[in-house]
Amino acid sequence: MKYIQTEFSGPLIGTVHIPGAKNSSLALLAAACLADNIVTLEGIPRIDDVRIIADIGRDIGMKLRQEGGQVIIDPRWIHSSMIDPGKASSYRASYYFAGALLSKFGRVTIGLPGGDDFVTRPIDQHIKVFKALGAQVHLFKDYYEVEAAELKGADIYFDTITSGATINAMLAAVLAKGRTQLRNAAIDPEVCDTANFLNQLGARIYGAGTEFIRIEGVSYLNGGTHTVIPDRLIAGAFLMAAGLHGGQVTVMDVIPEHLGSCLAKMEEIGMYVECGESQITAFGTNSLKATRIRTGMYPNFATDLQQPMTALLLQGKGKSIVTERVYPNRFAHVPQLRRLGAEIELRQESAFISGGRPLHGGWVHATDVRAGTCLLMAGLAAEGSTCITGVEHIERGYEDVISSFRSIGAKLSMRELDAQEHPSKIRESH
Ligand SMILES: CC(=O)N[C@H]1[C@@H](OP(=O)(O)OP(=O)(O)OC[C@H]2O[C@@H](n3ccc(=O)[nH]c3=O)[C@H](O)[C@@H]2O)O[C@H](CO)[C@@H](O)[C@@H]1O
Ligand SMILES: C=C(OP(=O)(O)O)C(=O)O
C-alpha cells in the first residue's frame, strides 16, 4: 500500500503549471459521446478518474487515445449504453454518461455514482431532469436504468443549485425535441465550459453562466476541438500553500476570475495576491490572521477549498470558523488533523479552529481528494514526519502530486508500506 511521507518544509517558493479541471474534464469526456464525429479535447489531466472513463469508453465502443496533451475521441463506434456498474461506481461523475447516452440509445443502464464519500450525495435533481424530459428512471440496489422512447424539451426548476445536475440536464437536452429551460441553474465555470464545448459542436445552449439556461434541441452534433478550463481548485490549494510559512507561489495557465472568493479570503487573512492575465502569485506572511469562511455554490467560497484553507487557518493566530453549507458534514479531515495536534471543534456544520498551535507529525488517512490536500499541507507545516494513507483519493484529483509540490520546495515522497508493518500502520492512520 502506498503512502505519502511529508517533512516540515520551510517557505514554499516556486511556480506550478495548472492542469485542466478534473470536474470539467469528467463532463466533457462524457459529452463527447453526443458527437457524430471526432472530438479532440486539450488539457485533460492524467488522473485516475479519466483512466476509468477511458476504460468505460472502451467497453461501450468509444475510441479514445491520448496524444501528448490531447485526448482524441471517436464516438462513432459506440454500440452500447450499458455501463459496467463497478466502473461507474468507482467515480462520481459517471452520471454524465446517463445524460449523454440517453438521447442516442433511448436506454442507459449504469452503476450508482461513487467518488468521494464524505457525506450523502443525492442525485434526486438528476432524476428530476430525466423524468421532466420524458424518461423513466428505475433504481436498483447497485445500479439504475434510465429509459425514454423520445426526449422532449421541458421547463425545469432546480430545487437546489447543483452543478452536476445542471450539466447533466444540458447533456440530456441538447438532442431533445424542442426547447428546454433550466431555472435556478448552477453558474460554475465547469457548467460554462461544458456549454461552450457543446455549442462548438453545434448545440444551441444560451445563458450558461447565469441561473437561467435555454437549450434549443438540435438533431445532431458535429465533431470539434476544445480546451478544458484550468483547475481552479488545484490552483487555489497551491496558492494557499504559499501562506504556510511566508512563501511565494505562482500558478500559471489559470483564469484568475474563477478564484475570486478564494483570493479575497486569502487577502483577508493577511496574504498578498497579484493577478496577471493567466497567472496568479500569492505571497505569504509570518503572521496570518483568523477569519470566518462560509462555503457555497459558485461564486461563493468552494466546498472543495475549505479543507486546504483549514490547514492554512491552523497557522493563523486566533479562532477561525469554517461553515460548510454545501455538504454540511464534509469534515472528515478534522479528526485526522487532530492527530497532528490541531485544535478544532466541530459543532453542527461548523469547524471552530484554534490557530497558531504547533503541529507534530503522525499517521493520518485521506478520505477524499481535498482532505488529502489539506493533510499534505498540514504535514508540511508539522514538525517531524507525517505519513498520509489513502493516496488513491489524492490521485483522483492530482496528476503528479509529489512532483508538483516538490517544485515549490516541499519535502515529500511516495512510499510503500511493507506487508509486515501494514496492519498496524493502517490502524494508526484510520
Ligand atoms: C465531479 C464534480 O464536478 N464534482 C464536484 C461537484 O459535485 P456534485 O456534482 O456532486 O455537486 P453538486 O453541485 O451537484 O451539489 C451541490 C449541492 O446540491 C446537492 N444536490 C446535488 C444533486 C442532486 O441531485 N441533489 C442535491 O440535493 C448536493 O447535496 C450539494 O449540497 O460539485 C461539488 C460542489 O461544488 C464539488 O464539491 C465536487 O467537486
Ligand atoms: C468532491 C470531489 O470530487 P467528486 O465529486 O468527484 O467526488 C472533489 O473534486 O473535491
Overview of the molecule:
With 430 residues, the chain is of the alpha+beta class. It has two domains: 2-19 and 230-429, UDP-n-acetylglucosamine1-carboxyvinyl-transferase, Chain (Alpha-beta prism); 22-227, Alpha-beta prism (UDP-n-acetylglucosamine1-carboxyvinyl-transferase, Chain). The protein is built from 15 helices and 23 strands. It has helices spanning 22-31, 48-60, 85-88, 95-105, 124-132, 163-173, 189-200, 232-241, 260-268, 306-313, 333-339, 369-381, 391-394, 401-406, 422-429; strands at residues 2-7, 13-17, 39-42, 63-67, 70-74, 107-111, 136-139, 143-147, 155-157, 179-183, 204-206, 212-216, 224-227, 248-252, 272-275, 279-283, 292-294, 318-323, 343-347, 350-355, 363-365, 385-389, 412-416. Strands 21-22-1-23 form a four-stranded mixed sheet, sandwiched between helices. Helix 5 (124-132) packs parallel to helix 6 (163-173). The chain is globular. The two termini are 14 Å apart. The model has no long low-confidence stretch (mean pLDDT 95). The structure holds uridine-diphosphate-N-acetylglucosamine and phosphoenolpyruvate (PEP). Phosphoenolpyruvate binds at residues 22-23, 92-93, 115-116, 304, 369-370, 397.
The first-level CATH class of the largest domain is given as Alpha Beta
Question: Alpha-carbon distance between the termini?
Answer: 14 Å
Compute the number of helices. Answer: 15
Determine the CATH topology of the largest domain.
Answer: UDP-n-acetylglucosamine1-carboxyvinyl-transferase, Chain
Approximate helicity band:
25-40%
Radius of gyration: 22 Å
Oligomer: single chain
Query: For this structure, what is the CATH homologous superfamily of the largest domain?
Result: Enolpyruvate transferase domain
Mean pLDDT: 95
Computed structural class: alpha+beta
Number of domains: 2
| Uncertain stretches of 5 or more adjacent residues | none
